[in-house]
């Protein structure tokens, strides 16, 4: 039996029947104690093995329970965190691997992430760690990560890559992303890298670089599906099934004439619902929107917003089809333009977040210098009433309130005006109505806060004359703030200057000067 093979030692060996050589002197024969011993030992061995298996099974169950608990804990942690983006735990693991120089671990940590999440991580690292991470990724680095990076960080990453790598990335990326990428390099680098790009891709890139920056020609992608007008639904479907280089994502098929001019747009849902013999010219949409290649990308975004477009063909001056702009590219434009306007209103640039200390300092210096000039202008106005302030100290306490309220009210109006101009919500037809509304809103707020400050001044200084002075100054300054908060951006727009760039500087100057002059001027007339 099974136990016999595992039994060893002299007690286990038995001789022929009737032989006495298997036992010691005076011991029993082979058919007696020897057989019982063998069976007893075998049973003991079997019980020991069974007990050992039971212990192992128990340990295995414990390990399974522990693993299930860890899985549940991990699941709870994931559910507590956003369902997208770089998690703090993974970010800490990558940083720790970089600090401990365990570079082979980095690609394994980043490989499961979406390129956008990898870009988030790269942006959070400092310059040295970024360089180390890119080196650690090696061939595992996904070129699409570059698409999601901030422009400043992307330029820094490109500086660490050799030209052969960049050329390889350009061949892999979509044409619109590739043109955007190579467009950030200087002309000498562009020429060298283009020589290393395959001829087919080089032609597309060189064509894209001929269009102005921030134009529809730069924004469009060349990968699209085009069919002639005489094709049938069946021919089109067969073409889509057999062609090898279809775009990864496309929303419509464009129907062209023999001169390659778009004459219709074929929505995929219409194609799939139609019979095979039907011609595409019979089911295509003829009232589709075309985008000129020279159109500014901000205008393109407004066009998509106005008509709810998902995709639009881009045409040359002679109406030839050049490419297509999709809604995902427009979303990027909207985000970029909104961020740009917001940054300009604050007198800062995108480089402040990801740039070096020197670049950040240098970019902010000009606006701070302009602000210094406006502050000096306000101080000169105050200096005109130095004698009044010396005689009535309460004026020095109250005059910052007047200027501050005017500045804040003007900023509110200015923000609304700049945004409305950017979205083309203000034109010559409704400009006067907008100006009147904002001016009246400023006046009403001025009246409300005039009552508040008049009461506070009486309680504070016990002088009704000061209360009347600050009340009148408050109303006038908030009225002016509402007026200039609309006129300044409209005027700058009229002379082709971006209102988001310079409006804030002029507004601050006007509200400070008017506020101080009205308040201190009235005080001089009434109190002295």
From TrEMBL:
Per UniProt, the keywords (alphabetical) are: CBS domain, Cell membrane, Coiled coil, Magnesium, Membrane, Metal-binding, Transmembrane, Transmembrane helix, Transport
- PANTHER family on file: MAGNESIUM TRANSPORTER MGTE
Quote the cellular component terms of the Gene Ontology held in the record.
Answer: plasma membrane
Chain coiled-coil ranges = 50-77
Membrane topology label? Multi-pass membrane protein
Q: What is this protein called?
A: Magnesium transporter MgtE
Q: Which Gene3D superfamilies match?
A: CBS-domain, MgtE N-terminal domain-like, SLC41 divalent cation transporters, integral membrane domain
Q: Which GO terms describe its molecular function?
A: magnesium ion transmembrane transporter activity; metal ion binding
Q: Quote the InterPro entries the UniProt record gives.
A: CBS_dom, CBS_dom_sf, Mg_transptr_MgtE_intracell_dom, MgtE_N_sf, MgtE_transporter, SLC41_membr_dom, SLC41_membr_dom_sf
Q: What does this protein do?
A: Acts as a magnesium transporter.
Membrane spanning residue stretches: 365-385, 397-418, 439-460, 466-492, 504-527
List, as start-end ranges, the regions of compositional bias called Gly residues. Answer: 16-32
Localization of this protein: Cell membrane; Membrane
Task: Name the segments for region: Disordered.
Answer: 1-34
What family does this chain come from, according to its entry? Belongs to the SLC41A transporter family.
């Amino acid at each position: 039996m099974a136990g016999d093979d595992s039994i060893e030692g002299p007690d286990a060996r038995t001789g022929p029947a009737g032989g006495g050589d298997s036992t010691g002197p005076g011991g029993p024969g082979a058919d007696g104690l020897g057989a019982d011993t063998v069976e007893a030992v075998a049973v003991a061995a079997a019980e020991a093995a069974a007990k050992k298996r039971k212990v192992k099974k128990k340990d295995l169950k414990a390990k399974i329970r522990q693993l299930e608990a860890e899985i549940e804990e991990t699941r709870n942690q994931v559910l507590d965190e956003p369902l997208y983006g770089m998690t703090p735990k993974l970010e800490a693991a990558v940083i720790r691997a970089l600090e401990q120089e365990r570079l082979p671990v980095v690609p394994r940590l980043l490989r499961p992430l979406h390129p956008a999440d990898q870009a988030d991580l790269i942006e959070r690292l400092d310059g040295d760690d970024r360089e180390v991470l890119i080196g650690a990724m090696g061939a595992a680095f996904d070129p699409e990560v570059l698409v999601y990076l901030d422009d400043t960080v992307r330029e820094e990453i490109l500086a660490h890559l050799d030209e052969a790598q960049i050329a390889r990335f350009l061949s892999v990326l979509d044409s619109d992303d590739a043109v955007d990428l190579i467009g950030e390099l200087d002309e000498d680098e562009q020429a060298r890298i283009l020589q290393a790009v395959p001829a087919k891709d080089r032609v597309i890139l060189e064509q894209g670089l001929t269009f102005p920056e921030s134009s529809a020609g730069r924004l469009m992608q060349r990968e699209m599906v085009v069919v002639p007008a005489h094709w049938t639904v069946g021919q089109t479907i067969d073409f889509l099934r057999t062609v090898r280089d279809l775009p990864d994502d496309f929303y419509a098929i464009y129907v062209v004439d023999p001169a390659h001019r778009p004459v219709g747009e074929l929505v995929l849902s219409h194609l799939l619902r139609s019979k095979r013999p039907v011609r595409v010219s019979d089911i295509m949409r003829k009232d589709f929107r075309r985008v000129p290649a020279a159109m500014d990308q901000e205008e393109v975004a407004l066009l998509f917003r106005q008509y709810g477009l998902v995709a639009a063909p881009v045409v040359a001056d002679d109406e030839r089809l050049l490419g297509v702009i999709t809604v995902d590219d427009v979303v990027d434009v909207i985000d970029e333009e909104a961020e740009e306007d917001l940054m300009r209103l604050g007198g800062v640039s995108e480089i402040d977040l990801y740039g070096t200390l020197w670049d950040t300092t240098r970019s902010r210096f000009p606006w701070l210098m302009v602000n210094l000039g406006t502050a000096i202008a306000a101080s000169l106005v105050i200096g005109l009433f130095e004698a009044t302030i010396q005689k009535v100290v309460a004026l020095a306490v109250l005059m910052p309130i007047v200027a501050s309220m005017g500045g804040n009210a003007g900023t509110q109006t200015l923000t609304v005006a700049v945004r409305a101009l950017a979205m083309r919500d203000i034109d010559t037809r409704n400009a006067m109505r907008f100006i009147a509304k904002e001016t009246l809103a400023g006046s009403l707020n001025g009246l409300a806060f005039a009552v508040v400050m008049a009461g506070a001044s009486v309680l504070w200084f016990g002088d009704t004359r000061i209360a009347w002075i600050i009340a009148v100054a408050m109303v006038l300054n908030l009225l002016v703030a509402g007026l200039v908060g609309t006129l300044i951006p409209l005027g700058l727009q009229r002379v082709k200057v971006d209102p988001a760039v310079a409006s804030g500087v002029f507004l601050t100057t006007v509200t400070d000067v008017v506020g101080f002059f009205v308040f201190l001027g009235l005080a001089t007339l009434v109190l002295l």
